[in-house]
């Protein structure tokens, strides 16, 4: 496991609980030392006791030595740079697993595309784990389902078995495009829902944003060759509902702060270095949509609130004032 933030540490626990021998690489040596000494990653998962089958290290060589799967748990926008450094260390046939939910700003590529390109492996060797997976709830072993997506179904099944525990139930899927776009887009819709909460709006507003957010995400997915049914599944509607409704979501919390009138810088400072992927992905997804002639009005206003000083109240008015049309 490369990355010892909230989700990397939690998914490492899932893999260890499923019976695997897991080595977790942390960027900061003191985080690795704390995990090995106290079985705790207090900065990201206070109070969670990590299992014995999990060992941490600050040495990427040690982390990847002999691995049958290498799981990438760093933010989307740094993944290319991180992986370029790790590329010479990757075991040749290891499944490369992406946990990140974003679209790269400079290239508009999905994470599996970045991984395949930088690691120089076929896309069939890359898998994605995505679903309604708020790290803190899974770390507390609350029942959760997810999706393991890979173009190579057999590889997906192997990974599915490797991460099945009594509290974590993975399904397989081969629609990599749909699963990844769903995961990236829901962060942007969660920012919009957070803004709605910050403005004092209730569940009708949230529900309207979730449903129309799903509609625009599905439109983009279909334009890029995804199966529309994917968006009704765990990584689509499932993750969208979890992220938009939960105060645990960093994206929703970030949006809530913007809705209350904080600036982007203030919201960023309050996040204490934890990543809210939607803040950057709103721009890359908006560009991807424009490239394919797809309308994504919610994503468009989220981008303008985050990066072009559109205020949340006129943003809401703009969405409501759009041309009337059939559903
Ligand atoms: N936290 C959650 O509940 C879930 C998060 N995800 C996704 O997983 C990915 C990782 O998220 P988290 O672990 O939650 O984020 P986080 O912000 O908690 O941790 C990110 C990790 O990456 C490291 N990192 C940050 N910048 C780096 C850089 N330049 N080079 C190397 N390492 C760097 C940090 O030290 C930290 O270990 C994101 O794409 C997120 O959307 C997916 C499902 C659930
Ligand atoms: O992806 C997630 C839940 O599935 C986590 O969402 P946040 O990054 O908004 O916390």
From TrEMBL:
Highest taxon above the source species: Bacteria
Pfam families linked to this entry: NAD_Gly3P_dh_C (PF07479), NAD_Gly3P_dh_N (PF01210)
PROSITE patterns: NAD_G3PDH
Keywords in alphabetical order: Cytoplasm, Lipid biosynthesis, Lipid metabolism, NAD, NADP, Nucleotide-binding, Oxidoreductase, Phospholipid biosynthesis, Phospholipid metabolism
EC nos: 1.1.1.94
Binding positions (sn-glycerol 3-phosphate): 101, 131, 186, 239, 249-251
Identification of the protein by name: Glycerol-3-phosphate dehydrogenase [NAD(P)+]
Species this protein is from: Saccharopolyspora thermophila
Gene: gpsA
